[in-house]
Design goal:
By secondary structure, this protein is of the alpha+beta class. It is built from 20 helices and 10 strands. The protein has 3 domains: 132 residues, Immunoglobulin-like; 214 residues, Rhopdopsin 7-helix transmembrane proteins; 147 residues, Arc Repressor Mutant, subunit A (Orthogonal Bundle). A 6-stranded antiparallel beta sheet has the order 3-2-4-9-6-7, with no helix packed on it. The chain has a 4-stranded antiparallel beta sheet with strand order 1-10-5-8.
Length: 529
Amino acid sequence: MKKISWMLVLFLLFTGTSCASNESGNQNVTNQFEFFQDPSTVIPFDQIQKLKTWTSISKGQLSFNFTNDVIWLRAKTTEVGFSQGRILSLEWKALDFAELYYPIKPKEFQTLGTGDTIPKSKWTFPEALYPSFQIPKENSGEYFYIRIQSKSLISFPIRSLDERSLNKHMILETAVTWLILGVCAVMFVFALFYFFAFGLSEFFFYAGYVVCTVLWYNGQYGNAYDVLWPESPWWQNKAILVFSTLGIPFSFQFVRMFLNTKVNNPRIDKILLIMGIVALVCVPAILTAYTTKIFSRIATYIYLISIPLILGTALQNYFKGEKRILFFLISWGSYFIVSYNTMFYFLGILPYSTPLLYSAVFIFPIDLFFLLFNLLQKYETLEGERNEILHRILTLNSDSDKSTRYAKSKLNSVNTEESLAKLESWMRTTKPYLDEKLDLEIASNAVGLTVQQTSELLNSKLGVSFRSYLNSFRITEAKKVLKENPDASILSIAYATGFGSKTAFNVEFKKATGVSPLQYRQSEDVENR
């Protein structure tokens, strides 16, 4: 675990330094522009040239947030950073459309277009990761202009790069992107394996959450448009909202199952269920209506409401005794606290900054790792499930075939009565069943048998599986504790008797006795009176 922690620290350092751009070939030129905001969106370029009133940009970024207005920018062709051949990079991959008007002859302007509402192959500079323009070689005017119109966010810096800086920037960002995708892909495959191998729904919803969030981020930051659908600008705009909204029901359903809110927090469970259904209903609406701004805000507000709700619920369960969700609290809490800042940026509350914008992306794989780790912690009894599967394999034939089931018995050279007595004595004297990690392999080693021999011994002599045999001791112990410690909580008794969760304890206890632990305790209290 220590090695993994160091790897995650190095990953953060690498991704953080990859975003830093302080070389001379990479300059922030935003404050060299002036702007004019056109609410009508229809003022033609020839009238824009005649405008006398322009507003200077004092900050190192554009700060127009979500707006339906057309933003016009103007800068002098002689300013530093606008020399011939340099690349102007508009640092927001999800920008809808931008058009450069550059004076190449007296009263003649060359127009160049970019943005994700046009196919990537038709960009004026398609090899760039961000919507970009290359300054033309000809120059015959004092000012050049940029027209920006976007349903997406218009709050980002404009950088001027030489070819060396551009190539370095592209290599670093591409490497980081694929590194993050690779980490996410590994955890996605791992989750699917556990889902199909053991039928655990939480792993399915975890995998869905991974896919939707990865595609959302890569759509939001333009990577998906660049790699997956560069010729599908209509889908690019829809995909961002589809995956961000579809991720809500996946993540909420995962939370509901992981925290067992249906039992532990029924009111919160209903709220999460309703919000998840609302988000699910919104998905087809996104495909049929051009309402980017509305649905962006709906998804953002749902996340903003859910973050304190989920964290508060997890904290409440943690202090009630669910200590296993510690990593859930750390990972989910850290990720969403960072995401809060990013969402405030999307809402226009916080200004642009590289750490602010991309910190959630960098911490997302770490969040996935700890969530998966916590899931595996919760299901440490999967080893027991594996042994159950082995037991079923060994006993596939029906009861009518018992005479032939062990035709090739592993117990031919074993004194079954002695081994059974040895196992029984070991269980009663050392009480290994109080440790939830006890499995068929450990028990077999304790009595000097193989896993197959122990499984066959229990089935042929007692007619039970190892899991049932183990739980019988745990239930007996639980009954004793319920009688002798009337003030002990059901959860503490579950953990004390080797069960991994309160739910598992309730299910097995009721299966064995016909009543829940609480009902059993109440009936004992009545008898004692």
